[in-house]
Each structure stands twice: as structure tokens, then as C-alpha cells.
Design brief:
With 296 residues, the protein is of the alpha+beta class. It folds into 2 domains: 115 residues, no CATH class; 143 residues, no CATH class. 32% of the residues lie in helices and 18% in strands. The chain is built from 8 helices and 10 strands. A 4-stranded antiparallel beta sheet has the order 2-9-4-5, with no helix packed on it. The chain has a 4-stranded mixed beta sheet with strand order 3-8-7-6, with no helix packed on it. It has a two-stranded antiparallel ribbon with strand order 1-10. α3 crosses α6 and α6 packs antiparallel against α7. It is extended, with a radius of gyration of 26 Å.
Amino acid sequence: MAFLTDYQYYENSGVSPTDANHGSYQYINLVDIVKNFMSNYTGNNEVIRNISRQRIIFEAKQAIKELSFDSLKEVKVMQVEVGSDLKAIMPHDYVKYVRISIFKNGKLMPLKEDSKTNWAKQYLKDNAGNLTFDELGNVILKSISDIDQSRLDGQDTNSNLPEQNSFEIYTDLIGGRYGADPSELSAGPSFMIDQRSGVINFSSDAIDQSFIIEYVSDGMEKNNDTSIAVNKFFERYIYAKIAYEVVNSKIGVQEYIINRYRRKSMAEWRNASIRMKNFDPVNLLKGLRAMDKRIK
């Protein structure tokens, strides 16, 4: 990203929305990455010659995807409403959830992923118990399976929990509920991820409530090249990764050159990852001091 004055950064030069540039200066977008790579890493005097812009864009996107999951771990937060279908659609750039919580009494209460919150697809059968097919020969599915219907009807409640409001179970669990599996005790609705269908299935007590989904994004930002960006700490790694992938796929390149590009890529990734670690010596010192605390 080009240099921004204070007025451009804080007020977007008076243009609405005025917060458009907030937090942007620490990132470099895909357009600038491709432009910088083509001008500095390709040419007649470079190992990489005659490479298309599309190939560079492809390799850059692949590197950003890997970074988003492995190193950056930049968490996005989205609020979703769960209706009578007890489902929430995953965000389009969802890769993996970090935490799913419900907002209750002014606090975020993390929910538990529970295998008892089931869903299923079910074949539609005729009165004789035979499968039914459409005109193309594909088996027809029921609009809603019996398992899903039981969940919607509230029949999938956790048998290990008390009957009263699940947000009040903590006081009942103290000193009681002998033999209960602690992994199945939670104060609130539960959920299960249906990756294939792109939805999150909630238990029956989640109806008409709001939930906060914190998740790791793939970093592609709707595939808009100007919106796809990476932290500047990883800029040199992106260049090194593109160069390695291109050189590694070329015919006639000596093995020692390929290994040199590979080691360069790994070194840049390692250095950037260390810089991005949120290491706070003050918090470390607090933890070490807590080790000396006597427990009566």
C-alpha cells in the first residue's frame, strides 16, 4: 500500500466511510505483491523469466491461504441468528472455527461441540418401502430427516443435564450429578459442524438466539485482488514462496538452485512467524510468579 498521510489514514481524506483505511497500513494487498514480484524477481538477468501474471497471482493466493491457516491465525468475528430451523450458515471464507459463544447476561459463554447434536439426510421411500427416484434416475431425499425433525421438536436434549434452564446448571452440578461425564456437561446449547452442507447445526434450546462465531478465514476476501492482503511481516516470505514454486516447476533448473529457493522460503516463513508471535514478557513473569503461590 502506498504511503498515507495522517489525514488519509484517520479520516480517509474526508470521504465516507472515514474509517476505510483504519488498520490498513500494516498490510500489503495482492495487487502490490504481484507488481513488486514482477518488477524485482523476474527479468533477463533473473532465474525466473517469461512467467505469466496469472501464474504469479495463483501462487501468491496459495501462499496466503496457507499463511491464513498455519501462521497468521487472524480471527474474524460474526454474529448469527438461529431461527426455527436451528441452523446457521457458515461465513463464505470459513476455514475452521475458533470459538462459538452465546451472549448471555452481558458475557460471552463458549458453547461445546456435541456429537449428540446430530443431523442426517434421509431417502424418500414409497408405501412399499422402496426408494423413489426422479426422472434422471437420482434418488429423492426427504425435505427433512427424522433425526432433524426430532431435533427441531426438542427431543435431542442432553440426558446428562438437569431439566431446568441450562444456564443455571453450575450450582446444581456442585456436589451432585455423580457419574456424569464432564466432557458432556455444558452451560448452554450445543452445536455440530456440517462442513459439506456449509451450516452449523444447533441443539433445540438454541432457537431464536444470537451467537458469536469466531473463525479462521482463508484470506481470500471474496477473491477481490485489491482486498486480499497479508501482513507486511510476511511480504518477503510471499515473494520467496512464489519464486520457489515457480523455479521448482521449471524444466532444466539445477537441483542446488531449487534447494536454495526452498531454504530461502522456509527461512522467511520461520522469521516472520517468530515476529508475529504475541509474546509478552510481562505475562510470562506473572505466570512464573503464580508458581510460588501456596495452595491451602
